[in-house]
Amino acid sequence: MTLLPWETGFAGPLTTSPRSSPLPSLPESSGISYSYAARLSPDSLFPNLSSRFRDPDAHSLPTRYSFSMTPPTTPPLILIADDQADVLEALRLLLKAEGFRTVTANVPEGVPALLEQESVDAALIDLNYTRDTTSGREGMDLLSRIRAIDPILPVVVMTAWGSVDKAVEAMRLGASDFVEKPWDNTRLLTTLRTQIALARALRMGQHLATENRRLTQAGLPDLIANAPVMRPILSVMERVAPSDANVLITGEHGTGKEVVARWIHAASGRREKPLVIVNAGGLSEGVFESELFGHVRGAFTDAKSDRAGRFELADEGTLFLDEIANIGLSQQARLLRVLQTGDLERVGSSRTRQVDVRVLAATNADLKAEVATGRFREDLLFRLNTIELALPPLRDRPEDLLPLAQYFLGRFSAKYRKNLAEFAPDAELLMRHYPWPGNVRELGHAVERGVLMAQGVVVGANDLGLTESTADGGALNTQTLEDVEREMIRRTLGRCDGNVSMAAKELGLSRSALYRRLQRFGL
Hints:
single chain; alpha/beta; elongated
């Protein structure tokens, strides 16, 4: 008797002598340890054993061979489509004798339904189904429909009117192989086994690739983006993240530009290397070069030791330059040179150092408009925006509002050890109607405040600190000094089109002081 590979779990068949004890008939689901007597040839067991270790009189080796049998894999299922009943029966008997299962259809229209109902391992289909028709068009159409349902399923086409032209056309449409009637049993069986093995390997490869992507993304930062407006952005992120392309991320304050940058780095091949974050707009001209490129001891008064810059720290990793629009023209020129060549010199040193850094940049300004006014170098823009991602404000993502709020609720409840799991209906209503000028960052601050202020088991509207006056910029006599300052900064940023330097000048603040307030107010 011969046990087929899918019956034993072995790579090849196991052959026993006629005197071997027969295996009992057991249900497929059973996991049994078999122990049976068999007479196995030493040559088959030890093909490479030297003759001096053999007993010349031992023609067979009586042994008691034990093995553990896991639940057997289900034999392959072959779908057969042909209009002739005798052909269907002949193929069914042939395949059954070889351990295959079969399911049949005598018209092309019945095949799609069978593919939906059964887990088919291969399809064996005729090319002609109408009497006196030899064009093969019916089979070609069926082949296309099968490919649309399952692109990986092996399809072997057969016809009594085979020709090279039909074979070429069938292969072009996705056929795995081509046989002619009357078929050669050995060739047909070999073809089916080969195609089933190839398809299983391909499906396993796809499964492993999917698992690899899933495991890779398991370490990605939390990114809640279910709104339709975010779908094309997510698609671009998934495509560009594995590359080394520079990415410019634009959007209003608080839209999540840094979160996107972290996600891209985590999904890239550089994820094992550092992600260095620099608030470029907050660096004064005097420290810009030292912060980004480093300095050597004695380069200036306070340079008491050598110091690596952010580019060196990010070598082989990613450098995220936030608020890139707020750096001056002279700083832009120095930055451009490093982006073009990868070469830099520390302040006070003539030694050139080479760095390999992927740059992600972010801004809330319109850099094309900045270029038009001469405030931003066009060549630097071209270096930064190989790919540009424009993040929408929270008010354009209503579908994400409550999921984001719930995420922040869980995060801050855990941080402050409070048992809060939901928002009161009035809190949800208020959040839906609030304009969120500070976007996701402001939402996070509001929810954090709500968690701290909540006294019951839910967060109420009053806990969030979002009143009607803060929502519509109402009367000053109903606002605190902090509310007034926040609203003033928000309006000034609006008038200055998000330009922090201009807003700081108009408000009579230094740029760093304004940045501190933006962080505090969640703007």
